[in-house]
Amino acid sequence: MRKIKMTFDKLNALSEEINELSNDFHMRYIEIDSILESIESSHTWIGKDELSYYRLLKEKYMVALKEINNVLDEYSAFLGNAGRAKEGLENDMALKNISIY
Fold it and tell me: pLDDT at position 97, please?
């Protein structure tokens, strides 16, 4: 069986990478929202289902995308906190003189 070795440096790097991805995701979210607002305000599509379609996009899909972005932010913060906790634990343990005998 393969073992996973995770250092606090790797946790911090992963936290930063996920944070960057979350920021990029947020920018894409803003772009999509802006495009939807533009389409809706221009009344490009006029019909009985126009309002239902935009409401569905805003209330379902855009909310889901925002929730995904929030989860990415929370996971990035969790990994950063875990990295700092692991670093603190390793530093504390390195200062201890533990004897088995």
Answer: 75
